[in-house]
Amino acid sequence: MNLQQAYFNVSQRIPTGDIKVTQRLDRAYDIVRCNGEGYSIKFMDDGVYEIHKASTSLLEDTSTFYEVTLDSCTCPDFEKARGNLCKHRLAIIMVVEMVRD
What we know:
By secondary structure, the chain is α+β, with helices and mostly antiparallel strands. Helix content is 38%, strand content 18%. The relative contact order is 0.23.
């Protein structure tokens, strides 16, 4: 399955009536689309992924990474996001959706 179809499938299962959830879904799409260009997604084991965002600063390393599963994420937005649907978790949901077929 391609990324666009995975995006559509995921959008049908989440509360897209909430603009913040829709914005996070769009940012998740960008994370998956830009894998290797600013972001990297790496499968660790046992359903755990690592999403790494490269530093954009030339002066200091501001790169970050989060451990993400289908149900959780270590980012600060996870606890605040509606349904715990942070952009990292949505990105992993899309990745899993793409490989299911």
